Amino acid sequence: MKAIAMTRPGGPEVLELRERPEPAPGPGEVLVEVAAAGVNFMDTGVRRGMFWTATSDATVLGVEGAGRVIGFGSGVEGLRPGQRVAWAYAPGSYAERLVVPAAALVPVPGTIDDRTAAAVMMQGLTASHFATDFYPVQPGDVALVHAAAGGVGLLLTQIIKLRGGQVIGRVSSADKVAAAKAAGADHVIVDVEGRFAAAAVHLSGGEGVHVVYDGSGPKTFQGSLDSLRRCGTFCWYGPVLSGQAPLDIMSLPRSIKLGYAVFADHVPTPALLRARAGRLFDWIETGGLKVRIGGVYALAEAARAHADMESRATTGKLLLVP
Ligand SMILES: NC(=O)c1ccc[n+]([C@@H]2O[C@H](COP(=O)([O-])OP(=O)(O)OC[C@H]3O[C@@H](n4cnc5c(N)ncnc54)[C@H](OP(=O)(O)O)[C@@H]3O)[C@@H](O)[C@H]2O)c1
C-alpha cells in the first residue's frame, strides 16, 4: 500500500510517496481504509525532526483521519466491517490504510461526510478543549483568538460564539479577514509583527480580554500578555510554532493564569473521546459549527500541502485524499 514517509528530517521535499508493507491489526486494533487524512502543524514538526525522533525506519507521517473499518484484531467489540470511523491521533495516517487502536476510533454519523469528519477531529477537539474545558467561556467574555482563519482558529471562534462570548481575531493578512468574520469573529486585527495588543485592549472596551488563545509563536507572546485584563487567562498551545524561551515568572502580569493546553487532556479516555467528538458532530448537524476545508490534496501531494500550510496563505483545514 502507498503512504507518505520520510527517512530524514527536513523541508517538505523529504516527504515521499512510498510502497509500505500492508498493516495487520493485532489484539484490540482495527484496520482502516483511509478516506481522508488531516494535515496538522504538528506533522511539520515531525517532518523537521522535533518529534518521533526515535524512529529509525521510514516514518509514515500524519495522525488524523476518517475512513472505513476493513479488518479487526482479536478482542475488538462495538465496531463492524464497513463502519465509518474517525480518529484524532493515530500515527501513520498519511496512508491508504493503517492500523488504529479500537479505543482511538469514534463512529461517524451518516449525516457527516468523511472529509468533514477528518477535518474536525484534531482541531475541533483542540478548540473544544480550549473554550469549554481549559477556560470555559462565559456569556459576555471577550476572547482574543490568534490565527483566527486557521483550522483551530475558525472552530474556536465558532465555539466561543456558541457559548455567548465575543471574539477578537488576529490574522496575518487582510485576505483572511473575511474567513474569520464568516466564522463569527466580532473584530479582526491584521498583524504579523506582534503589535496587536493596543487594538485588542481598545476593542475589549479598554480593560483587556478575559482570555487569549495563542499558539502562534514567540512573536505574539508579549502582545498576548499585554492584551489580558486583570486576572485574565492565557491559553498557550503552540509547541510547533513557539520557541521555548525561558520565562521569568516575576515578569508576568500579576494574578493572570497561564497554562499549556493540550487536546489529549480533553479526551483522556475512550468514553470522553467519543462523547466530545460526538458533541462536535452534533454541533455540525445542527448548524452551529461549520467546518471550512481550505485545501484538498492527493496523498502524493503531501509535500505541497506542507509548503502551503507553512506559507501562511491557507485558511481552514488541509486534507490529503488517498
Ligand atoms: N496543544 C494542542 O493540543 C494543539 C493541538 C493542535 C494544534 N496545536 C498547535 O496549534 C498551532 C496551529 O496548528 P494547526 O495544525 O491546528 O494549524 P492551524 O490552526 O490551521 O494553524 C495555521 C495558522 O497558523 C498560522 N501560521 C502559519 N505559519 C506560521 C508561522 N510561521 N508563524 C506563526 N503563525 C503561523 C497561520 O495564521 P496567521 O498567518 O493568520 O497568523 C495559519 O492560519 C500549532 O502550533 C500546533 O502545534 C496544538
Automatic annotation (TrEMBL):
<dbReference type="GO" id="GO:0008270">
    <property type="term" value="F:zinc ion binding"/>
</dbReference>
<dbReference type="InterPro" id="IPR036291">
    <property type="entry name" value="NAD(P)-bd_dom_sf"/>
</dbReference>
<dbReference type="GO" id="GO:0005829">
    <property type="term" value="C:cytosol"/>
</dbReference>
<dbReference type="InterPro" id="IPR013154">
    <property type="entry name" value="ADH-like_N"/>
</dbReference>
<dbReference type="Pfam" id="PF08240">
    <property type="entry name" value="ADH_N"/>
</dbReference>
<dbReference type="InterPro" id="IPR002364">
    <property type="entry name" value="Quin_OxRdtase/zeta-crystal_CS"/>
</dbReference>
<dbReference type="Pfam" id="PF13602">
    <property type="entry name" value="ADH_zinc_N_2"/>
</dbReference>
<dbReference type="InterPro" id="IPR011032">
    <property type="entry name" value="GroES-like_sf"/>
</dbReference>
<feature type="domain" description="Enoyl reductase (ER)">
    <location>
        <begin position="10"/>
        <end position="320"/>
    </location>
</feature>
<protein>
    <submittedName>
        <fullName>Alcohol dehydrogenase</fullName>
    </submittedName>
</protein>
<dbReference type="InterPro" id="IPR020843">
    <property type="entry name" value="ER"/>
</dbReference>
<dbReference type="GO" id="GO:0035925">
    <property type="term" value="F:mRNA 3'-UTR AU-rich region binding"/>
</dbReference>
<dbReference type="GO" id="GO:0070402">
    <property type="term" value="F:NADPH binding"/>
</dbReference>
<dbReference type="InterPro" id="IPR047618">
    <property type="entry name" value="QOR-like"/>
</dbReference>
<keyword id="KW-0521">NADP</keyword>
<dbReference type="GO" id="GO:0003960">
    <property type="term" value="F:quinone reductase (NADPH) activity"/>
</dbReference>
<keyword id="KW-0560">Oxidoreductase</keyword>
